[in-house]
Write a structure and sequence with these properties.
By secondary structure, the chain is an alpha/beta fold. It has 8 helices and 8 strands. Helix 2 crosses helix 3.
């Protein structure tokens, strides 16, 4: 792979290997299907998606892209895992999802091609899988219009998140395939906020995502110690 591309070939291979299971709500991607309505509603509350031009960075099989399009947004989903993208395209065809397209391109390359072209940029569960998350944050900031919104979600780095997101989710509860996450790549909210400020993005709010293994239910809260989302806006020049 081209060394200038900000992607880990092993990570791309891992998600490509599972691509055919992406839209099976009982598969390894069950957690994504369960948290998707929560993420979607939270984003839509900050900025109503209907009529917005959106790019979903690291879209994978298109679970969030598809849902945002169904909210009335015009969505471009981008990823570098070609098999996952094919699954996303196939699902859009089968489900006849309007206003959604997919491209195999990096965030950085698209930022060069289409700076300031989007009202909303989403980058969910992706930053903890790339070698240089700061580069992705800068690309997202370049893609969005001045005053536009950029949303990120990732995993905090602390002993609790190691216990919950890796030991618990991958090994004990087997919610995710073993090896899905690498603890060293987790990102503290303060680090992500620093990347955002450096890219000209102002923090607007944060939400945590919690899970009860007994009820198998997810919900949003103020606890950002494990999974968390942040909303930012591009500072108008």
């Amino acid at each position: 792979m081209d060394k200038t591309i900000n992607a880990d070939p092993a990570e791309l291979a891992k998600f490509s290997e599972l691509a055919h299971r992406w839209w099976d709500p009982e598969s390894e991607f069950r957690p994504l299907h369960q948290i998707n309505p929560l993420r979607l509603e939270w984003i839509d509350r900050q900025v109503p998606l209907a009529g917005c031009r959106v790019v979903d960075v690291g879209c994978g099989g298109g679970i969030l892209s598809d849902a945002m399009a169904r909210k009335g947004a015009e969505v471009l989903g981008i990823d570098l895992a070609s098999k996952a993208l094919k699954v996303a395209q196939l699902h859009a065809l089968e489900a006849q999802t309007p206003r959604v397209t997919y491209r195999e391109v990096s965030a950085e390359a698209l930022a060069e091609e289409m700076p300031g072209q989007f009202d909303v940029v989403t980058c969910m569960e992706m930053l903890e899988h790339v070698p240089d998350p700061g580069s992705v944050v800068r690309a997202c900031a370049t893609l969005v219009k001045p005053g536009g919104w950029v949303f990120f979600s990732t995993l905090n780095r602390n002993p609790k998140s190691f216990l919950f997101a890796i030991v618990g989710a991958e090994y004990v509860l087997q919610l995710l395939p073993k090896g899905t996450h690498e603890y060293a790549k987790f990102i503290k909210p303060s680090e992500l906020a620093g990347h955002c400020r450096g890219a000209g993005l102002e923090l607007q709010g944060t939400r945590g995502l919690e899970y009860n293994p007994l009820t198998r239910r997810y919900w949003l809260s103020g606890d950002t110690s494990v999974n968390y989302m942040i909303a930012t806006r591009k500072v108008p020049v």
